[in-house]
């Protein structure tokens, strides 16, 4: 097997990649839509079968099943390279019907087209290339998960297990609009807090009431005050609700918090402050309960991850991606889980796209082939 064979075959598969992308974009697969997420998984399983690649499912009762595939030479006991990605989207059922896969001016549009169905298409075609031309010195493992957009509640243990078993992880989240890839990311914690007060008529019996909304307001101000931009720590209360009626002191109120941070050591200190705020009532008689609903770990660039990036960057230059650099992202991804278990990890290797999570989400079609070629060469040389 030669580098030329791999890169030329991938170039010949451009239309096949676009065709598969069209199919999977046109299947609704919101994170909570197990049926839809598994339907996308089944389409990728068919691809593996068509290319003679061994694949299997790891079932889950609530969220989509994890899809595994492997390309390995018989008898190999080397640690595999892990190609990773998620097939769920943030969009509700019916979105694919409302705005199906379309192409305009060298860009593709549709729900999840960049984030991250095209990265998955790239991964499975890279695996097919190695299967076609006789494998790789190190086995190639493909993992397609189901719930990244909600912080991978079912997939995290699978990702951590597969990450520990791998020699390197390539996570094919979309390439940055700059054309760069992602070498480090923030961690994130998504929390809910509920406040209990006491209802009373706000005109006739005001003094008997205890306003949960009043308490909510004070807690929001204190939570936002924990933001420290110099350290990359941000807090945002992005959703609030509460109250019974305009003329009743609010017996209940709730909010949802988004915490982002860079340094793993900052997690404990910020969480301790949030818990202190929750435990300290400003409005006497209120109480609060805090619940973590989802969490991503930061992807911190280790020396081994830096070396992995430099190898990928060299491969990218050889297929014409001469300006590609590494970028930091404030967004979270599953790559944080594999970085945290100590496996060299890089992210954002997928084809280039932008405006994820919006109706304007797009993918640069001309980036599909060179990004696939760069990944294949990086694996081959690694």
Automatic annotation (TrEMBL):
Q: Identify the cofactor(s).
A: Zn(2+)
**UniProt keywords, alphabetically:** Hydrolase, Metal-binding, Zinc
Q: Domain (Peptidase M20 dimerisation): give its ranges.
A: 184-285
The molecular function terms in GO held by this entry are: hydrolase activity; metal ion binding
Short name of one Pfam family: Peptidase_M20
- Active site per UniProt: 88, 148
Q: What is this protein called?
A: Peptidase M20
